[in-house]
């Protein structure tokens, strides 16, 4: 159980500020995810914590003890690599025992701990095998067992599931989450997959250009994105530019896309340009009853089984996406008029960039 | 880890500066000095330009190198295509055999030509007996034949890799878009292999220009650059070190330009042989397939035939220079009756040189591959220099540098080892850095992350993972050091005569039987270790070239 405090951490490569003055507090036993597009600095940050990249300025503390000057092999972190990094010249059991041997654990204890670790990742009996006899998913489990068995202060995951196929990925992320919770280890998890991040994290930090955009629980990150970037990165939201109108004490009308949206709260001074985030699931197909409504025309239907995604055009031609249930509005043809209802509280406005 | 890298890089640079750059600088310096007085002059170069003999020497060398390059491409490209795209029986064996001429000593092949087609050659006398005279193979024709037959693998290897790097889908896409087969070959295949052809061809050119042994055996009295440099420096009657220096500088200039052009092409386009799906074999009529098989096997067998001939002839009895058809081990008896020393020297020197080269080369290769910095970039560049310098010139530089002064090395075994190590170091560096490139860096990081220090990780994880590749490199260095002639002939001293030196003197003299036996020993010494680990070597050669 370790709490991690990162203060004003910076690292530049040439002219690029890969990690730019980042401060974070990660709690005991938390699964904390660093999320962002490639090049956002998430992997650099993780590798700085692991000790593979030198800290330029700022500090990293585990339980109040500064570790950023320690060499990588003395930081007591257990890292799971994107490509597994299983030693090909050692058996599965030797791979798992590697860190225990480095820590001079007695041989008898090593054997029992290795067995237990392999059991935990559902690979009991695979110890004597050679890595090349294992599948990708099994190799990933060995990598996790190898990192867990040393009972590290912190578990580090560097896009651990990105080399697996889609179905295995969703299975493995549940296993990773359950193991982490069962052992109560603090974990930092790097991914660019927003669904994965939402599914397993206690908290998420969204990074962009080496800076933190928002740190929050998955629910709040999704429902209350603080910046347009976060809103767009999490879930394929519709971003619609518009001009704010006069606040009526409860809502603000925003003229956008040839029509008008009603947004909860005072979003901007009248006449100011804003950017609206309208989530596809915030728009519902209605047949003309009251509430906040907007009119559009169906352009294309993507039928996905349980749900469908409708592509529609707003009066000025702006394309938007609408999430609907699989059985809804099946008789509508492209060109048909749609009436969309929404809750003004579900629409977020950002100052236009 | 950074300190380890810096120490290795600096140590390697110091080593190369002392034993490569400093001697070469002295050769350059000598070329601008008046022989005897030591005053500065351009006279040595002026003398070369005025001399018909030296101009002929340069002309002959360039002509042979150019012709050898053209012929090597002419047989190498079709062979590479057949190996890549036609279902030839015994393809794996053919591939192994095709790489053999690169490591077998080329002057042995030249000597085989003399034994077969020379003045008193087996074939010459036989044909003369039935009244068919054949032309002389001495000079340009023989030299070009030998260079072509021993250097064509330099074209085959990269071009084969190029043909295989074309993913099947790329060709299928071109066909799907309506391209006919010849159109696809012209617009997809050729542009991809063209840089490989140029790169391989230039390598042939460089090797042919530098080579000392082949013209030494076949030139007779005709002028050739590599031979003339040796004679001017070490000749008993007409020694002129200053002129040797000037010719050396000209030779280095030619090879350096070719090498830079070659690296330029190779740097622009890298081939990976791990195309997702290799292109399918061409559907051919049985007749065409038979033709391709005969041509492919024919080329490879023709290139190995001289070596086989030498092995056979070494078992026949010579009466003076004339060969008889009586079998006997007399030649070997003569070779070994004097002393076992030359053979022992060859084995000892090659072993020391191979171990030292790999011990120095492996850490350098690791640093060059893993820790990119300005310093390691410089090392990478300096490490390339020996490719452009012939053994004779390096040896001349070493003699000028270490014949007097604080460090005297001439006359001993150490200077031979130094010459071998410096000449083979680029190979060791490149082969070990190629191995390191194939190792995922996250393996080392995983080890460090689990609590093993970086230096211990290098020793206990990286080195074992590199080991199989390093053994291959070790054997290749050993083989090429054992059959080294061009530097040895300049540097050897009385106690350190090697088998190659014995053979050279036997050819110069009248010991045809002795030379054949020495040549056979050299073939065995190089071929046996090669066959023991041939699979590994194949892989390495393609990565190093």
| The CATH top-level class label of the largest domain in chain A | Alpha Beta
- The strand line-up of the biggest sheet of chain A is 6-7-8-3-9-10
Biggest interface: A-B, 25 and 17 residues
**Topology, number of strands of chain B:** 2
Helix content of chain A: 10-25%
Q: CATH homologous superfamily name of the largest domain in chain A?
A: P-loop containing nucleotide triphosphate hydrolases
Pfam family, one (chain B): BPD_transp_1
Domain ABC transmembrane type-1 (chain B): 58-262, 343-533
Family (chain B): Belongs to the binding-protein-dependent transport system permease family.
Membrane topology (chain B): Multi-pass membrane protein
Structure, explained:
The complex is a heterodimer of chains A (353) and B (545). Chain A has 353 residues and is α+β, with helices and mostly antiparallel strands. Chain A folds into two domains: 2-230, 3-Layer(aba) Sandwich (Rossmann fold); 236-349, OB fold (Dihydrolipoamide Acetyltransferase, E2P). In chain A, 24% of the residues lie in helices and 35% in strands. Chain A has helices at 42-50, 92-102, 107-120, 136-149, 166-183, 194-200, 218-223, 228-233, and strands at residues 4-13, 16-26, 31-35, 57-62, 65-66, 77-80, 154-158, 186-191, 203-208, 211-216, 238-244, 251-256, 259-264, 273-278, 284-286, 292-303, 307-313, 319-325, 337-342, 348-351. In chain A, strand 7, helix 5 (166-183) and strand 8 form a beta-alpha-beta unit. In chain A, helix 2 (92-102) packs across helix 3 (107-120), helix 2 (92-102) runs parallel beside helix 4 (136-149) and helix 3 packs across helix 4 (136-149). Chain A is elongated. The two termini of chain A are 42 Å apart. Chain B has 545 residues and is mostly helical. Chain B is 76% helix and 2% strand. Chain B is built from 26 helices and two strands. In chain B, strands 1-2 form a two-stranded antiparallel sheet. In chain B, a hairpin with a 2-residue loop joins strand 1 and strand 2. The longest helix of chain B has 34 residues, at 52-85. Chain B is globular, with a radius of gyration of 24 Å. Mean pLDDT of chain B is 84; it is low at 271-275 and 540-545. The A-B interface holds A 50-52, 71-74, 76-79, 81-83, 85, 87-89, 98-99, 102-103, 146, 150, 156 and B 440, 442-443, 445-454, 457, 461, 464-465. Chain B: It is found in: Cell inner membrane; Cell membrane. Chain B: This is ABC transmembrane type-1 domain-containing protein. Chain B: Pfam families: BPD_transp_1.
């Amino acid at each position: 159980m370790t709490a991690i405090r990162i203060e004003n951490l910076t690292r530049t490569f040439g002219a690029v500020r890969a990690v730019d003055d980042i401060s974070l507090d990660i709690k005991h036993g938390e699964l904390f995810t660093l999320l962002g597009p490639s090049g956002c600095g998430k992997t650099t940050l993780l590798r700085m914590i692991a000790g593979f990249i030198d800290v330029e300025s700022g500090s990293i503390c585990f339980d109040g003890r500064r570790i950023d000057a320690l060499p990588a092999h003395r930081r007591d972190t257990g890292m799971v690599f994107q490509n597994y990094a299983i030693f090909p010249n050692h058996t599965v059991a030797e791979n798992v025992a590697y860190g225990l041997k480095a820590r001079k654990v007695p041989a008898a204890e090593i054997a029992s701990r290795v067995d237990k670790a392999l059991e935990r990742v559902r690979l009991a009996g695979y110890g004597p095998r050679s890595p090349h006899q294992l599948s990708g998913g099994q190799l990933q489990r060995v990598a996790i067992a190898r990192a867990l068995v040393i009972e590290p202060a912190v578990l580090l995951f560097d896009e651990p599931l990105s080399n697996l196929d889609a179905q295995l990925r969703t299975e493995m992320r549940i296993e990773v989450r359950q193991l982490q919770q069962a052992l109560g280890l603090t974990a930092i998890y790097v991914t660019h997959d927003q669904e994965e991040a939402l599914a397993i994290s206690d908290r998420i930090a969204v990074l962009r250009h080496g800076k933190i955009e928002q740190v929050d629980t998955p629910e709040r990150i999704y429902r209350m994105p603080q910046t347009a970037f976060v809103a767009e990165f999490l879930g394929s939201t519709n971003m619609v530019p518009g001009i704010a109108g006069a606040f009526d004490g409860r809502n603000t009308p925003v003229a956008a896309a040839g029509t008008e949206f009603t947004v909860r709260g005072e979003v901007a001074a009248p006449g100011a340009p804003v950017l609206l985030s309208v989530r596809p699931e915030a728009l519902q197909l209605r047949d003309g009853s009251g509430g906040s409504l907007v009119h559009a025309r169906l352009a294309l239907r993507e039928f996905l089984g349980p749900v469908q995604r409708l592509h529609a055009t707003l009066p000025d031609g702006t394309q938007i996406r609408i999430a609907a249930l699989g059985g809804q509005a099946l008789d509508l043809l492209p060109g048909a008029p749609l009436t969309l209802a929404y809750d003004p509280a579900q629409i977020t406005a950002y100052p236009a960039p | 880890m950074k300190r380890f890298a810096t120490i290795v890089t600096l140590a390697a640079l110091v080593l190369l500066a002392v034993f490569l750059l400093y001697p070469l600088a002295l050769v350059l310096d000598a070329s601008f000095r008046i022989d005897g007085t030591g005053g500065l002059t351009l006279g040595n170069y002026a003398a070369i330009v005025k001399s018909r003999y030296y101009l002929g020497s340069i002309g002959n060398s360039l002509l042979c190198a150019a012709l050898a390059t053209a012929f090597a491409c002419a047989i190498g490209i079709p062979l590479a295509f057949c190996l890549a795209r036609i279902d030839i029986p015994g393809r794996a064996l053919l591939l192994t055999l095709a790489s053999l001429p690169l490591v077998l000593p080329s002057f042995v092949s030249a000597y085989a030509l003399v034994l077969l087609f020379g003045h008193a050659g087996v074939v010459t006398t036989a044909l003369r007996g039935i009244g068919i005279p054949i032309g002389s193979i001495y000079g340009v024709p023989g030299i070009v034949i030998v260079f072509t037959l021993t250097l064509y693998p330099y074209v085959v290897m990269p071009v084969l890799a190029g043909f295989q790097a074309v993913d099947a889908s790329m060709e299928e896409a071109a066909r799907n878009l309506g391209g006919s087969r010849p159109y696809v070959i012209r617009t997809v295949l050729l542009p991809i292999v063209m840089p490989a052809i140029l790169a391989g061809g230039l390598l042939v050119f460089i090797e042919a220009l530098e080579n000392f042994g082949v013209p030494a055996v076949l030139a007779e009295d005709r002028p050739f650059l590599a031979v003339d440099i040796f004679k001017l420096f070490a000749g008993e009657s007409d020694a002129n070190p200053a002129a040797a220096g000037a010719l050396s500088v000209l030779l280095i200039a030619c090879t350096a330009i070719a090498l830079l052009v070659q690296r330029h092409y190779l740097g622009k386009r890298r081939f990976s042989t791990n195309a997702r799906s290799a292109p399918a074999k061409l559907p051919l009529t049985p007749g065409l397939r038979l033709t391709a098989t005969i041509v492919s096997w024919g080329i490879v067998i023709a290139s190995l035939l001289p070596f086989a001939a030498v092995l056979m002839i070494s078992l026949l009895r010579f009466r003076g220079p004339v060969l008889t058809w009586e079998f006997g081990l007399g030649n070997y008896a003569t070779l070994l009756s004097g002393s076992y020393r030359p053979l022992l020297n060859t084995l000892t020197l090659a072993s020391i040189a191979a171990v030292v080269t790999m011990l120095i080369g492996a850490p350098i290769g690791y640093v060059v591959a893993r820790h990119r910095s300005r310093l390691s970039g410089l090392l990478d560049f300096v490490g390339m220099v020996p490719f452009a310098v012939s053994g004779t010139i390096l040896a001349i530089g070493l003699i000028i540098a270490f014949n007097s002064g604080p460090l005297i090395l001439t006359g001993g075994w150490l200077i031979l080892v130094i010459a071998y190590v410096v000449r083979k170091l680029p190979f060791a560096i490149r082969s070990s850095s190629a191995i390191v490139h194939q190792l995922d860096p996250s393996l080392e990081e995983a080890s460090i992350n689990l609590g093993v220090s970086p230096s211990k990780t290098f020793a206990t994880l990286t080195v074992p993972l590199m080991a199989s590749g390093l053994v291959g490199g070790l054997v290749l260095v050993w083989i090429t050091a054992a059959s080294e002639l061009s530097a040895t002939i300049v540097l050897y001293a009385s106690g350190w005569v090697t088998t190659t030196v014995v053979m050279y003197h036997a050819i110069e003299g009248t010991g045809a039987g002795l030379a054949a036996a020495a040549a056979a020993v050299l073939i065995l010494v190089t071929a046996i270790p090669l066959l023991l680990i041939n699979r590994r070597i194949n892989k390495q050669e393609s990565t190093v070239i």
